[in-house]
Structures are given as C-alpha cells and as structure tokens.
Amino acid sequence: MAQPADKPDATSSDTQPSSGPSTQAEMARAFKDLARGEQQAAAIERNLANLESKLDALLASVEAETGAPGAGDGEEARADPEGGQPEQKQ
C-alpha cells in the first residue's frame, strides 16, 4: 500500500536527528545525567571495596581466633552463648 503524498515517509523524517536548540539541550542534559551516574557508580565501587576490605579483616580475625582457615563456612561447631558445650551443626 502506497502512502499518500501529503504524509511524509516515517523513516525519512523520524530517524534523522534534528539540530535544533531543544535537541542540544536534551543532549547536554543526557551527558550531565551520564556523568552523574558515572560518579555515583564510582562512589558505589569505592564503598564496596571498603566493605570488602572490612569483611576480609573480620574474616582474618575470626580465622586467627579459631586457628583454622575458612572458619565461617558453616561446618564447625557453634559455641553455646551461655557457655555450655558446643553443639554440632546439622
């Protein structure tokens, strides 16, 4: 089916970017949003690295106290918080 002559072809006008002021403003905003997103991602990565180092230090201290590497893997006995005999995990 052919398109009427008074309607332009959708592929020729809709896909070509316009260079008007609104498009430039939209692009500027998009770049600002992108830069802000990258800054937030970098901050999250720094926080995750900090958390990872704290977890590594905590794991190292637990391993040093128990004298066994991997002391939090769930295979060891749990100490009774009231000072009784350790109970075995099931």
Automatic annotation (TrEMBL):
Region of interest: Disordered: 1-28, 62-90
Regions of compositional bias (Polar residues) in chain numbering: 10-25
Top-level taxon: Eukaryota
Record protein name field: Uu.00g039360.m01.CDS01
Species this protein is from: Anthostomella pinea
